[in-house]
Amino acid sequence: MRDRPARRPPRIARRNLRIACAGLAVALTVGAARTPEPGLDCPPAKEVAMELVASAENSTLDWRSQYQYIEDIGDGQGYTGGIIGFCSGTGDMLEVVTLYTRNKPANPLAAFLPALRKVNGTSSHAGLGDPFVKAWKTAATDKAFQAAQEEERDHIYFDPSVRRAKADGLRTLGQFIYFDATVMHGGGDDRNGFGSIRKNAMAKAKPPALGGDETAYLNAFLDARKAAIKRATVHGDTSRVDTEQRVFLNERNFTLQPPLRWKTYGDPYEIQSWPSPENRHAT
Known about the structure:
By secondary structure, this protein is mainly alpha-helical. It has helices at residues 43-58, 92-103, 113-119, 129-139, 143-167, 172-185, 194-202, 214-232, 239-250, and strands spanning 70-71, 80-81, 86-87, 260-264, 267-271.
């Protein structure tokens, strides 16, 4: 996983996942895939979003292969693991394991809950180490652990981002831009957090909900995002903005309609059509 800034997930009350496009019929016949209704929370668009994030976070489109991922990437947040980069030092990894244990008390990670509580807010591995890494990878094959990762992704990162973007009058691309920013920077109001990025963007342009132009606002948001990346990372690489999200914006692809072609960290990717259950990731 790439070097990323510290993330401070907001405290968000847990709620059940609601699919805003319930009942959406999506045709996924060969050569005739129908565009889903606007909204990143429609299943095909959400799948595209996860593949886009995975290209930047893990250099793959197969985000489901990352349930087992775990390592210390040296960002001061302890272990980083799973499909969205949950961290032992920021509390969201603790939430994942807590939820997993609540739903399935007998699991490989339950014994590490006391240690996860103690290291929260630090980069420490105390009480974790190799046994914890091994247990994480073992748990990754368990559907209950996979479900816990997906639920925490939704209630901490995905759902709040999409909700905020819709309130700002943004279409699917803008909703993804908010989601990706929250994944990397966290949803807080610290200097490099999502809240500050949005505030800095709104000082330059109004979102559509306030009568502004969507393209102008998203360009302002991406400019503010680039500044935050450069402040918060050692590498300063802004390719997930420059050669991914800005590409889609310049193409005026506000619905994230495939085919999509982009680069992150110099690596090229392509999504040729809307993903289906039979074809969960593209090359």
